[in-house]
Amino acid sequence: MKKSIRQVGDSIFDKRMSQLVKRYPYQSFVVMSAALEFLGKCYSKRTDFQEGRHSQDDCNKAINNLSALNKYVKYNDLYHNLRCGMLHAFTPDCIILTRGMNDIDNNKIGAKEFCSDLRKAWEELKMLPDCKKHMMETFILDVVGTSSGSTLTQQ
User: Domain ranges in the chain?
Assistant: First the structure.
């Protein structure tokens, strides 16, 4: 199935993300961590989302350049402490995950607030003139049989 980058993003940041946060707050951080990187790839206008060695830069660009995410700069290294921790080991490093709101002074990220901020960042990103055209490009989303392609670590 072929969809534009915008269509893919709209499906990531829709109401289902909030429902996931409400029902499964801990697990939702896995999806939200990947969504953070997706935002960065869109901001960077990547043409190949699978190209290696950009994940950290993409996450940091999203945090440093989208006003809805600027508060997360205070967490110092959200790429390693949240994104890598959740996507590789299913556990964060140096931060505490909570169900509700952030408590930045105590190094806590709340699922509800983080979700809201990611959704705001997506809306913000869609309004950036440089990103609008790029988001209309086709993004291949294929699930064939039991697999959807490869990841960098499978190659």
Answer: 2-147
